[in-house]
Amino acid sequence: MSQFNFVSDLQNALVMDGDTRGPAPRWKKKLEASMNGSANTTRSVLSVSYNTSFSGVQAASAKTPGKSSDAKAKKSMTTPSKTPGGGDRFIPNRAATNFELAHFLVTKEAANNSDDENDEPSSSNGNNNDNNVQASAHKSELQKLIAEAAQVGDSAKSGRILCYQNKAPAAPESHTNPLKVVYSLKTPISTKSGSRYIPTTSERILDAPDFINDYYLNLMDWSGDNIVAVALGNCVYLWNAASGSIEQLNEYEEGDYACALSWIQEGQILAIGNSTGAVELWDCSKVKRLRVMDGHSARVGSLAWNSYLVSSGSRDGTIIHHDVRSREHKLSSLSGHTQEVCGLKWSTDFKYLASGGNDNLVNVWSLGSGGVGTAPEPLHKFTEHQAAVRALAWCPWQTNTLASGGGTADRCIKFWNVHNGSLIKSVDSKSQVCSLLFSRHYKELISAHGFANNQLTIWKYPTMVKQADLTGHTSRVLQMAMSPDGSTVISAGADETLRLWNCFAPDPLAAKKVANVNSNAKKSVFRQSLR
Amino acid sequence: MSTAQATKNCITLKGSAQIIVEYLKYGINSILFQRGIYPAENFDNTQQYGLTILMSKDPKIMSFLQNVLTQTEEWLSKNMINKISMVITNAHTKEVLECWDFKMQAEAGDGVEAGDPSKQTSSKQLSRIQNEIRDVMRQISATVSYLPLLDCICTFDVMIHTLQNTEIPAQWNETGAVFIQNAQAVQLRSFSTGLQKVDTVVNYKMSS
Questions:
Q1: What local confidence, expressed as pLDDT, does residue B119 receive?
Q2: Which of B112, B138, B195, B207 is the most buried (most CB within 10 A)?
Q3: Chain B residues 26-55 within an 8 A CB cutoff of chain A
Q4: If you measure CA to CA, which chain A residue comes closest to B32?
Q5: CA-CA distance, A492 to A479, in Å (whole number)?
Q6: Do B183 and A38 touch (CB under 8 A)?
Q7: Residues near A487 by Cβ (< 8 Å), separated by ≥ 6?
């Protein structure tokens, strides 16, 4: 039997056409993968990237785009330098040899030959012949595609490549790419010392295992009752900042998770937006779920309270106002975004709602005519950000001022006057802006950043002079929340830690002064009454 | 009645070329800004497609693009272009660092008068086309997060891949194709005017 196997193997080996028995050559697998990939990409996927190392004649034969090929490329690049040019041996440079292209050209010739000799005796079967015709038709199609991809089609057929003679000028010599800040790691720049002392190390570090590193979620909030709610993995935990006790609020089933947490202004009601698109209300004093409000078709990544109203922003691009008191909870649905809504904040006087989305928009919605919810059309649409906007903050002392921060491609903190819809100021923070908070005690704001330094930066407002950089996180800072007394900021980082920063502690001297003024005033009242 | 409706909302090949050239104008300017090729001070905001797009205000760049795009529009309206490449090169070493390909594909349109391509029309809504373009523009500005840093003085050029029988106009040259060593390609979204489909692909050099 074995000799027959051998003969049939031999015959198979001789047949140039049809499928080869062994594993498909690399270029074939790659081409298939790339064709599948590109078929998917045409409509929706942003970047199914495929390796087209065969697109350049001189392209390196990147075996795998991993470390190994890098190492190989480096090696072959260094060898010629060791043996100076003009040696007596020809050492082929592997990196410069395009194996895939060479293989393609060789097989193309072979395939052409076998096309001519289709009625070869080794494939004498009638069925086989039919298959061969089909296979070769398929093959010629394939080769056309490869030729296109490899840009080596018949030179006669391909068209001309034309370009204009007067070229565009090069950038000025002094120009350095402003994007450098996105890519290069620098030690934090020494900041101007402000008028007050700001501790630059965290006061306390809490472990937050499984904290989801997702720019579009809002997974932490600090309540007026001094309780920090944080979602870790598929659980929600409550940390009592006063006593330090930890309580697990709930645990989602496998696959589901909390996407947004938001405390009501006063009391112990926590709203949770989950991955199924529902908004849940929890009474945290009793650890009991009060109600579930649906309405979204995708996960709810942002929430904002306005007394009995909770507004939810979802991945489906809509914002829904829920009236938590009534049975028909859905008041209105706003469709001002085309992509995921990841930032949502009511202004400090609750007259405006600001929303930021993955479509790089900031929308400002004004209070509705009935005083409930908002008008269905945005009052302002700010398109100036060049990346997703997640960081939003309203100024507590200028109620018409909104601060917004953009993602990696933007890196700017912009200030808006929502009364007239104008841009007040724009500052390049040189890093992704994940969160913004205004201080209540100082005319300052704090911003949370990602790469390169993963720092929190305190800025003087409105001059936007840097006051301090608070470093410590080893991965980007995703979320910030302020303590009810406004003195402490908690930050949640993708390094799975929560850090507490005592950066806005009221100045003891200033407090004393106020006390003095008060006591003086009281004295004078006393005197008056004595008279 | 019916003819009035038919003429109300249709795009001819000429109009389709105009839409595509407009996209190229905003797309190329956006790339120049987003990739940091020229100083940010030399750009101005404009509103287009419901987005803020930064346009170069350097007179040399503006006149270069104006000249190139006028010619492009003429060829496009005759369906003579296969591909337009925007090539970013190192100004000193002339090494090609990045190549943005805009691939053109003729489409059937409504197919009523398939015989004469210049009379073909498409009834696709302009707002729909512009929404498609907006999505591509957003993707262009999002590429910053994965494309490698262009850490040198750069310049750019636009190469137009036309049919073989195209006449070379005055002040134009024929050149060879460009290749990027160790390239990686990412395809962005496509848009179509109904008569022509445009694929946007960015090819970039893998950092070694």
A1: 72
A2: B195
A3: 34-40, 45, 47, 50-52
A4: A171
A5: 5
A6: no
A7: A441, A502, A504, A505, A506
Query: What is the distance between the terminal CA atoms of chain A, rounded to a whole angstrom?
Result: 128
Q: What is the CATH number of the domain that holds B46?
A: 3.30.900.10
Residues in chain A with CB shorter than 8 Å from the CB of B97 are: none
Q: What is the pLDDT of residues B165-203, one digit of tens each?
A: 888 888 888 888 888 878 888 999 999 988 889 999 999
Q: What is the edge-to-edge ordering of all strands in the sheet holding A489-493?
A: A204-207, A497-501, A489-493, A477-482
Chain B stretch 189-208, residues whose beta carbon is closer than 8 A to a beta carbon of chain A: 189-190, 199, 203, 206, 208
Q: How many CB pairs under 8 A join A and B?
A: 191
Is A303:A313 a contact under the CB 8 Å cutoff? yes
Residue B5 lies in a domain: no
Q: Is the distance from CB of A473 to CB of A451 less than 8 angstroms? A: no
Task: Yes or no: say if A423 and A415 are a contact pair by the CB < 8 Å rule.
Answer: yes
Nearest Cα of chain B lies from the Cα of A165 at a distance, in angstroms, of 5
Displacement of CA A56 from its chain's centroid (Å) = 32
Is B4 among the domain residues?
no
Q: What is the pLDDT of residue A2?
A: 55
The residue range of the domain holding B115 is 10-205
Note the residue count of chain A: 531
Which token pair is A266? 């006063």
CB contacts of B40 in chain A (<8 Å) are 178
Report which of A430, A372, A437 is spatially closest to residue A403, judged by C-alpha positions. Answer: A437
- What pLDDT, in 10s, does the model give residues A312-362? 999 999 999 999 999 999 999 999 999 999 999 999 888 899 999 999 999
The Cα A196–Cα A192 span in angstroms is 11
Is omega for the bond preceding A462 within 30 degrees of 0, making it cis?
A: yes
State the DSSP code for A531.
Answer: -
Name which of A48, A161, A178 is nearest B174 (Cβ-Cβ).
A161
Chain B positions in Cβ-Cβ contact with residue A426 (cut-off 8 Å): none
In contact, A331 and A319? CB cutoff 8 Å = no
**Confidence (pLDDT) at A525:** 47
Residue A137 has pLDDT above 70, yes or no: no
Strands (DSSP E) along A317-428, which ranges? 319-323, 330-334, 341-346, 352-357, 362-366, 380-382, 389-394, 401-406, 412-417, 422-428
Does the ipTM surpass 0.90? no
Minimum CA–CA partner of B63 in chain A: A168
What gap in Å lies between CA A377 and CA A137, rounded to an integer?
57
Residue A367 per-residue DSSP state: B
What is the residue-wise DSSP string for A47-109?
---B--GGGSTT----SSTTHHHHHHHHHHHHHHHHS-SS-SS----GGG--HHHHHHHHHHH
Structural domain includes residue B44: yes
Cα–Cα distance for residue pair A494/A207, rounded to 1 Å: 11
- Closest by CA to A248, choosing from A217, A218, A301, A210, is A210
CB under 8 A, 24+ apart: contacts of A231-240: A231/A257, A231/A258, A231/A259, A231/A261, A231/A272, A232/A208, A233/A209, A233/A257, A234/A258, A236/A261, A236/A270, A236/A272, A238/A284, A239/A206
Q: Which domains does chain A possess?
A: 2-59+98-150 (no CATH), 205-512 (2.130.10.10)
Q: Is A49's CB within 8 Å of B168's CB?
A: no
- Using CA coordinates, name the residue in chain A closest to B51: A383
Chain A residue numbers touching B61 (CB-CB < 8 A): 168-169
Question: How many domains does the structure of chain B reveal?
Answer: 1
Specify which residues A293 forms β-bridges with: A279
DSSP code per residue over B129-144: HHHHHHHHHHHHHHGG
**B130 in contact with A at a CB cutoff of 8 Å?**
no
Chain B, residues 82-121, CB within 8 A of chain A, namely 82, 91
